[in-house]
């Protein structure tokens, strides 16, 4: 157990460095420290690449992988449903709608004198969209008692927003549709250092919140009745779990697009490797595991020799799908891994 | 220790009242069996007693204090419950399950202190589940699982433990095991134990008191032998064509002579 944790931590560090040095331009690993802190005249180009492109991208990969994996873990435990992921509450659908309004509704908004279309407003649209959905979900969670209903409400939201987006696509020009589609592919490369300065504090807040969810999540495993009898404040912990999940998944989706799969697979892989249901172990492990998986996927998406980086979501699903199927077949039954 | 009692309690869901004007008292150091037909409101009564659902009217109190005003965490140290809810999928092991009983005592992250460890060990010992301590819940038999659940309730260290049909699906040996475990817990810890059950023979043999629930009737309380003689037990299980003769029930199960 300890060995696999140490191994995972080490793997994360190695992959992080690999993500910095590998790409269309190779950075010599032995000079990395020098490049970062006191670059020689001829190393300035490398420093520019590392500081402005590779480093923010690698940090974004770690942050996004960890956050998505954690929010997936919370949703799976909260709903006691192995199919749940960070986006079951409709967070990414809300973000998509926000982005669609910004991108596809651009023509409309310019008519009334607003100008949208830059990357900043994409992010803004996504944040606004996911925040609105979050508010609606919280509202409904006060109305329904059982969590399955909440799950279904989330699904309905996804369908409805998906429909709205397709209506908007129908009336939009091909260029706008393409930029919307590019956003839905997920992208770590568009995250800049200055964006990280805003994104990281939000995520760190979510990660700190996650630690406080450990105890409630553990008692949730044996059901709400026992959780209540054990003295858990069901209402408060419900809101806390939804809020932390929305914070993590929403912030990542806003900055990197709806990155598929990590949030679903990360927690499953963590549970299977650790063979435990205890969130004290699962939370750190699932977090680092998510970071590792996303680092690998990002590395693959821009393997040397490719003319440009491939869509991130294609890689996460292509690599991750078979991995999860293999794990399920090996374990025979996913339900028992909770 | 104080008693867990009800005054003028009406129970049910929404507007539908299942039983009204229920006045009962569960005393420490007593094993009480709650008996009645399916659908008579045994589970609802247990859930209401545990504060898991609101009474329609009247109140549940521990000593002088209504459980409504007792702090959530404090209440969790007074009343423990084992329901019929399934814990479906579980990769949790028995030790972890029992440890969850310490939830109302541990700090914000659930750190086990020495006292928590001692209680967990003690509960595992008392329920004799040491041999499956590291077994996953998913792999347990029904009998093992129920004993693990009792151990969890014991670890919660409440003054009262309420159990909803804890011996359903168990064979006669395991049922005997469970009831003698209840008697042992009662004797060793002086807790008040309320068990809703359909085991007439075992209830008569082990319970200090029976509570008989019937549709639209006040709950009848009394010592098993008295209730057999008065015919009260046979009355709540009325059947058109058959009747139940409980005169031999007490002698059906007896301790072996050399024990």
UniProtKB/TrEMBL annotation, chain A:
Keywords: Cell membrane, Membrane, Transmembrane, Transmembrane helix, Transport. It is a multi-pass membrane protein. GO terms for cellular component: plasma membrane. InterPro entries: ABC_BtuC-like, ABC_transptr_permease_BtuC. GO terms for molecular function: transmembrane transporter activity. The chain crosses the membrane at residues 7-29, 55-75, 87-114, 120-140, 147-171, 198-218, 239-262, 282-300, 312-329. GO terms for biological process: siderophore-iron import into cell. It is found in: Cell membrane. Belongs to the binding-protein-dependent transport system permease family. FecCD subfamily. This is Iron complex transport system permease protein. It comes from Reichenbachiella agariperforans. The lineage of its organism: Bacteria, Pseudomonadati, Bacteroidota, Cytophagia, Cytophagales.
TrEMBL record, chain B:
SMART domains: AAA. Keywords: ATP-binding, Cell membrane, Ion transport, Iron, Iron transport, Membrane, Nucleotide-binding, Transport. The keyword Membrane applies. Its main location: membrane. One of its GO terms (molecular function) is ATP binding. Residues 4-240 form the ABC transporter domain. GO terms for cellular component: plasma membrane. It is a peripheral membrane protein. One of its GO terms (biological process) is iron ion transport. PROSITE patterns: ABC_TRANSPORTER_2. It is found in: Cell membrane. Pfam families: ABC_tran (PF00005). PANTHER family: IRON(3+)-HYDROXAMATE IMPORT ATP-BINDING PROTEIN FHUC. This is Iron complex transport system ATP-binding protein. It comes from Reichenbachiella agariperforans.
């Amino acid at each position: 157990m300890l060995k696999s944790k140490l191994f995972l931590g080490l793997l994360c560090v190695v992959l992080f460095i690999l993500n910095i040095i590998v790409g269309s331009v190779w950075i010599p690993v032995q000079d990395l420290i020098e490049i970062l802190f006191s670059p020689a005249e001829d190393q300035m180009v490398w420093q520019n690449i590392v500081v402005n492109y590779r480093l923010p991208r690698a940090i974004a990969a770690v942050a996004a992988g960890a956050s998505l994996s954690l929010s997936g873990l919370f949703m799976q435990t909260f709903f006691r449903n192995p199919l749940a992921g960070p986006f079951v509450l409709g967070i990414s659908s809300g973000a998509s709608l926000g982005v669609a309004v910004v991108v596809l509704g651009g023509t409309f908004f310019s008519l009334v004198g607003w100008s949208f279309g830059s990357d900043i407003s994409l992010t803004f649209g996504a944040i606004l969209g996911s925040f609105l959905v979050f508010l609606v979900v919280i509202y409904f969670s006060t109305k329904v008692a059982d969590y399955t209903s909440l799950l279904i409400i989330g699904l309905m939201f996804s369908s409805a927003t998906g429909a709205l987006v397709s209506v908007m696509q129908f009336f939009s020009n091909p260029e706008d549709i393409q930029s919307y589609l590019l956003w839905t592919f997920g992208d770590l490369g568009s995250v800049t250092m200055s964006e990280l300065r805003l994104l990281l504090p939000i995520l760190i807040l979510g990660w700190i919140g996650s630690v406080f969810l450990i105890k409630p999540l553990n008692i949730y495993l044996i059901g709400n009745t026992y959780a209540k009898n054990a003295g858990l404040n069901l209402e408060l912990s419900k809101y806390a779990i939804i809020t932390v999940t929305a914070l993590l998944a929403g912030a990542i989706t806003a900055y990197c697009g709806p990155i598929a799969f990590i949030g679903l697979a990360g927690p499953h892989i963590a549970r299977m490797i650790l063979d435990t249901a205890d969130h004290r172990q699962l939370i750190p492990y699932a977090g680092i595991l998510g970071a590792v998986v996303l680092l690998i996927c990002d590395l693959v998406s821009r393997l040397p020799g490719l003319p440009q980086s491939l869509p991130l979501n294609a890689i996460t699903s292509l690599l991750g799908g078979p991995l999860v199927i293999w794990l399920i077949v090996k374990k025979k039954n996913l339900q028992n891994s909770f | 220790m104080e008693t867990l009692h009800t005054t003028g309690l009406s129970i049910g869901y929404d507007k539908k009242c299942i039983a009204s004007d229920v006045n009962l008292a569960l005393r420490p150091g007593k094993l009480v069996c709650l008996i009645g037909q399916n659908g008579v409101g045994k589970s609802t009564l247990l859930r209401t007693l545990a504060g898991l659902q609101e009474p329609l009217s009247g109140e549940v109190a521990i000593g002088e204090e209504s459980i409504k005003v007792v702090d959530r965490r404090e209440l969790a140290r007074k009343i423990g419950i084992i329901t019929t809810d399934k814990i479906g999928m579980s990769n949790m092991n028995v030790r972890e399950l029992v440890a969850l009983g310490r939830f109302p005592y541990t700090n914000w992250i659930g750190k086990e202190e020495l006292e928590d460890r001692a209680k967990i060990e003690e509960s595992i010992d008392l329920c004799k589940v040491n041999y499956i301590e590291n077994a996953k819940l998913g792999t347990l038999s029904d009998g093992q699982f129920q004993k693990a659940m009792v151990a969890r309730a014991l670890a919660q260290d409440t003054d009262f433990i309420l159990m909803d049909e804890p011996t359903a699906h168990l064979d006669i040996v395991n049922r005997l095991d469970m009831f003698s475990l209840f008697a042992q817990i009662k004797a060793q810890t002086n807790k008040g134990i309320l068990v809703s059950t359909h085991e007439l023979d075992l209830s008569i043999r082990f319970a200090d008191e029976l509570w008989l629930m019937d549709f639209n009737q006040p709950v009848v309380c009394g010592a098993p032998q008295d209730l057999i003689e008065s015919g009260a037990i046979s009355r709540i299980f009325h059947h058109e064509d058959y009747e139940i003769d409980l005169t031999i029930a007490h002698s059906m199960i007896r301790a072996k002579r050399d024990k």
